[in-house]
Each structure stands twice: as structure tokens, then as C-alpha cells.
Design brief:
The protein has 2 helices and no strands. By secondary structure, it is an all-alpha fold.
């Protein structure tokens, strides 16, 4: 779950950078914002995959919570 939250935060940070870059006319900052958003989406996807893997493990008789 931590990876999903970190991914969401990274996406939010990227959206902020992109918005500031647009207002300031700074193409580099806009690009950094888009990159941060992509990284955040990837990190969130990893977190979701980890959660699914834990769920499958639990359903197959793995760790009990």
C-alpha cells in the first residue's frame, strides 16, 4: 500500500510542476512534471501488483493476517 500512496504523491507533485511550468512558460519544468507523473503512475501500478500478489498468496494459504 505504501508504493501506491507514494505513486499518488509523485503524480500530484508532477501535476503541480506541470501547472507551474505552463504558467511560467518554462518548458523544462512542464516536461519534468510530466515525467514525475509517469513515474508516479508506474510506482502506483507496482503497488497495485504487489497488493494483488499478496492477496493471491493469502488465498492460497500463505500468511494469515
Amino acid at each position: 500500500m505504501a508504493e501506491k500512496a507514494k505513486g499518488k504523491m509523485e503524480q500530484l507533485k508532477g501535476k503541480g510542476k506541470e501547472a507551474v511550468g505552463k504558467v511560467a512558460g518554462d518548458d523544462r519544468m512542464k516536461a519534468e512534471g510530466k515525467t514525475d507523473q509517469a513515474k508516479g503512475k508506474a510506482r502506483e501500478a507496482v503497488g497495485k501488483a504487489q497488493d494483488r500478489a499478496r492477496g493471491i498468496d493469502d488465498s492460497l494459504g500463505g500468511k494469515k493476517r
